[in-house]
Amino acid sequence: MKLLRNISLPLIASLALFACERDYDAPLLTEPEYTGPAANITISELRTQNAAATQDVPIIITQDQVLKAVITGNDESGNIFKKIYLQDETGAIEMEVDQSSVYNYYPVGQTVYVDLNGLSISVYGDEQQLGHPEGYLFRTPWEDFEKHVSKDGWANPENAKPVVIDDISTINAAPDNYKFKLVQFTGVTFQNGGKGIFAPEDGYGEENITDSHGNTIMIRTSNYASFAGNKLPEGKGNVTGILGRFRGTWQLTLRTANDVSDFTGSNEEEGGNEGGETPSGETVLFQESFGTPQKNGEYWPYLDEYTGFDNPANMFECLSEEKPTIRSSNNLGNVWFPAGKDITIAIKGINAQGNTTATLECQVGANVYDTGTSQDLNTLKVKCNGTNITLPSKIVTQSENQANIPFKLTVENVNISESTTLEFSGTASDNTCGLRLFSVKLYVPGSGSGSTGGDGGTTIEPTPSN
């Protein structure tokens, strides 16, 4: 009895204490409030002031500067590693942080004030990044990060709304206005939709999306992303992500699986390479992307040896003594016209389907890779059934990081015949840097279609293949 009493009394006491505790609500969390100095610099100003930073020589910030920004991307899914993305009204920048699971502390939509004094601007892939001068790869140690980055208020996803873009080519008009911003591309399709996955188990995945104008950009996904094994969606939909830039080329990084949305689940409306009418009403007479060429040992295949075209290989012919090769640059197939050589190719037997005029759309790039180089893309000479066609002028330069980036060039009201031949030439006198023909499209616009301007483009992943 004594033993029972000794056991029962503590038990009763603990139950009574538990019952009392249930009467109390959990204490309210205190909303974070920033009380430090006011912001006195923008992201655009920060970039400009530290433009002299290089990969080898970063700039340490020694001024009392405070940046106000919103977090637009973090490591929630594992696709972004040890970094966050900051954005304000003037631009966006990547910040390196030596910590995992940052999203638990600094979620998307969180307004922050960054004390820049003591941090650094370094360069990776020709792009500036904010970090710590003494950190490994300039990653900010966590204890320093928490001292320098102060939260203000609760995170609100409405603070991190993407820039909505329906024409991928527009990002090339002013790269500084878009790089590292949160964007959403609408009405896009995955080239491997319904077939591939976002990333293999043993490395990064590189998958292209294409908009309704024919422009393409690559989505790069880590095999550590929680959605890496998800199947690529079919049909048309919207894709949101951080618009990264590496050595002058674009790549989109998804934050979570939710960044892929509203896909129709069917590719039935997309049409083929020839003869299909698109949902916009245009009739595509011919379309070629030059596939996914691979090297044979150290060498790219010649055009007359290549079999990976979207169309029958017998439609393609080299008309010059010098032979062009089919290459891959920025993850896109292309015909390579080397500098200082006379090369002409022909695409024969295009069925006009009873039409007498059509719109020609080409994506062209130049190898302006060396310092100070530039070239007008209309130095690629074009003929249709023997008649010269002048492409719109588009000068690309090394200083603008435009090496080997495809730009869309459009010519309307091209006279065609029942069996049309297109010719593309690079000449020794005009082709000073080397030209790439990334794609060709010949189509009849629908009644509701608008014309496309003379400079647009696509872009994808790092280093050009020369």
UniProtKB/TrEMBL annotation:
Residues 1-19 form the signal peptide. InterPro entries: DUF5689. It comes from Phocaeicola plebeius. Keywords: Signal. Residues 447-457 have a biased composition (Gly residues). Residues 39-260 form the DUF5689 domain. Residues 261-281, 447-466 are annotated as: Disordered. It holds the Pfam family DUF5689. This is DUF5689 domain-containing protein. The keyword NADP does not apply.
